[in-house]
Specification:
mainly alpha, 3-stranded antiparallel β-sheet, about 50% helix
């Protein structure tokens, strides 16, 4: 059985997920997704149909079967059209690609969130994830 504080935390997480989902939809609608309306509509439907679970990658071969709307938009289109749309979404920063799999680039939205105070362990973890090892050793300074 959960206590009152734990239930409030769970409720806040649900609210935050819903708010981030709404912000993502608005973010996608404001992005420049192509020069023609059909292209932009197809790309918008594709990126919004991808599962939003963190770490969930969707195979490119499965994209046209994500939703009935996406299936209709890509019926009669070649694989080249799908590749162009994926590349266009990646160029817009909305999509991350790894080999033959893709996922929404939700991290793009986090640039607009205010910073919050991190615990020391969270700070070390986040710095470890983004830091790049220095390829050249730095010479020790002599005094």
């Amino acid at each position: 059985m959960l206590g009152f504080v734990e239930e409030l935390r769970e409720q806040l997480q649900v609210i935050q997920r819903l708010q981030l989902g709404n912000v993502w939809v608005n973010f996608v609608h404001q992005a420049n997704l192509g020069s023609s309306a059909p292209t932009a509509r197809r790309r918008r439907a594709l990126i919004l149909a991808l599962p939003g679970d963190p770490g969930h990658w969707t195979l490119i071969s499965e994209i046209t079967r994500l939703t009935p709307d996406v299936a209709v938009l890509y019926s009669g289109k070649t694989r080249k059209t799908l590749t162009r749309d994926i590349n266009g979404l990646a160029e817009a920063g909305l999509l991350t690609r790894a080999g033959d799999a893709v996922r929404p680039n939700h991290e793009q939205m986090f640039a607009f969130l205010p910073l919050r105070k991190l615990s020391e362990s969270e700070l070390v973890d986040s710095l470890a994830r983004v830091s790049v090892p220095n390829p050249e050793p730095v010479a020790a300074a002599t005094v």
